[in-house]
Amino acid sequence: MSDWVYLEDLRRAQTVDALLPGERIGGTVVLRTTITLAEDRQPMGPGEVHRAGSVLWERLQSVRLHGEGSMFPIGVADFAGTPYGANASWYLQTSEDLSAPFLGTFLLLVNSRDEALIAAINQKKTSPLGQQLLSNLEAGVAMIMIELALGHEGADLGSYSDDSVGSVLSRYLTMAHEEGLTSAVRADDPGRFRSLAESIVRAHGYGRTFE
């Protein structure tokens, strides 16, 4: 997943403050700072940058938060003997307490038997198979978040404090409603609901994207 966090005209002295939504980051966060030419200009000499979009300066900074590809705090457990399903790859532990801190109550549990998925999460450089597994995981979790949000359509989710469960679900509810996805669609046509939900999460950068 990638997204803009700050876009502004360059000034002589500039301080950038950005708040990253906690439910959309995890693993290794890569911050790319780029100064580009905003408009075409007449070159003053040979080799001078003059086309809009040309990169004048760029810096990459990586901040590792957890195993690669995670969006939530992660736990590993053997699902045998649990209510999650012995052959399931993962389970998202959630909370109905809308005022609770999101990162303190949501937990992504990964089945220790799925060694390929665990390897993909922990790898610094993910293989093509590992990336596919992580993309499927990310999309699946995002779809669960949309379903959870639609379960609270009658609540004023936007009134909850930042980084609370209600605040996070509010963003997913907005994503769903912008595309006409409601809980009524899920009740009337589960197949259409699944298709719309998949489209929404993909459009917002979750999971595998089209080339």
List keywords for this structure.
two-stranded antiparallel sheet; 6 helices; 3-stranded mixed sheet
SSE layout:
Blueprint: E1 28-36, E2 55-64, E3 74-77, E4 90-93, H1 102-105, E5 107-111, H2 115-122, H3 128-150, H4 165-178, H5 183-188, H6 190-203
Parallel strand pairs: 3-5
Antiparallel strand pairs: 1-2, 4-5
Any overview of this molecule?
The protein is of the alpha+beta class and 211 residues long. Helix content is 33%, strand content 15%. It has helices at residues 102-105, 115-122, 128-150, 165-178, 183-188, 190-203, and strands spanning 28-36, 55-64, 74-77, 90-93, 107-111. Strands 3-5-4 form a three-stranded mixed β-sheet. Strands 1-2 form a two-stranded antiparallel sheet. Helix 3 (128-150) crosses helix 4 and helix 3 (128-150) packs across helix 6 (190-203). It starts with 27 loop residues before the first strand and ends in an 8-residue tail after the last helix. Residues 66-70 have low confidence and may be disordered.
Summarize this structure briefly:
The protein has 211 residues and is α+β, with helices and mostly antiparallel strands. The protein is built from six helices and five strands; from the N terminus they run ββββαβααααα. The chain has a three-stranded mixed sheet. The chain has a two-stranded antiparallel sheet with strand order 1-2.
